[in-house]
Amino acid sequence: MSSRYLIALGSNRRHHAYGRPRDVVRAAMEELSALGTVLKRSEIFRTPPMGAAQRRFANAAAVLESEYDPMALLAAAKRMEREFGRRRGRRWGDRVLDVDIVLWSGGVWSGSALEIPHQDYRHRDFVLIPANRIAADWRDPIGGLSIRQLAARI
Hints:
Elements: E1 3-11, H1 21-31, E2 37-41, E3 45-47, E4 57-66, H2 70-83, E5 98-104, E6 109-110, E7 115-116, H3 125-135, H4 147-152
Antiparallel strand pairs: 1-4, 1-5, 2-4, 3-4, 6-7
């Protein structure tokens, strides 16, 4: 049985093959198709650095329909990050690629390595703005608010 996922993507470092962060995000959105069917893609937004990051980010969102369960999709997303050159580093630091599972059509998922909905997405404009463009009516399974309502609050 397939599920739908709201995926957030971000980059703020160049990649040796793909180039600028926006091109990294574009390439990563193409790579998502190996994990299922990409039903929708947002445009790519340029956002300011946060935390320890020094460079501006390119951020986007995608709706993915996949046969993967949440843990299998997480493993595939982490593998994709590594294949794009992401290395473990400082939290909130610069990165070639970040892929996060934000929401899932199955509602809430709680595991040792994964929480859906993503614990911080409700307060992150760099997630909500692109998500609002492609999944405005998706609802947070905990608070009940739509992506549109959450985006309007920031």
